[in-house]
Each structure stands twice: as structure tokens, then as C-alpha cells.
# Entry
Amino acid sequence: MWLEGIPCEACGSTGTAAGGGGPCRACWGRRCATLTRCPKREVDARVLKAIDYAACARHGNWPRAGGILDQTQSAVQVIRYVWSEEDAFAVDRAAKK
# Structure
């Protein structure tokens, strides 16, 4: 998977191998980072939880008693799914204008 917008660290986003000997072997000349395994394996559970909390806070549900901290994991997953679908719908609607 190519991570457009994230610079390749191996070549400094030049797209060429060190010494100019052909394309960079990390990004194959695309000048962006690559992901070669499941993204979930790149971050630990604490980071994923922080991402969840940040997404919930963005929607006004702060990680506090009575908020997202008191919800079941399946409820949080459903909430995230709905927000994701809403975001996709908004992008689709904006593209049609």
C-alpha cells in the first residue's frame, strides 16, 4: 500500500536510490512511504484506543465518566461505523456539487 503524502524515509522523497543508482528500493520511485503489512500491526492497542478517543471527542463525546468511557466496545464500534458512513456520505455529496 502506498501512503501518498507521507514522505519516503529511505530516499528522502527523491524517488532515487542512494548514489543515483535507479529507483529507491523502499518506495520504487513513488517518493512516498509504503506499508507492507496490516496497519494494525504498526501500532499498539494504546495508540488505537487514543485514536478512538480522539474521534469520539471530535464528535463531542469526551472520554470521561458518563461519556465514551462508560460505553461497551461494541457500542463504540457501532458509533464509529455510523460516523464513518456519515463522513463518506458527506464526501460523496460534496463531490456531486
About this structure: The chain has a mean pLDDT of 81. The helical segments are 45-58, 73-96. The beta strands are 2-7, 32-34.
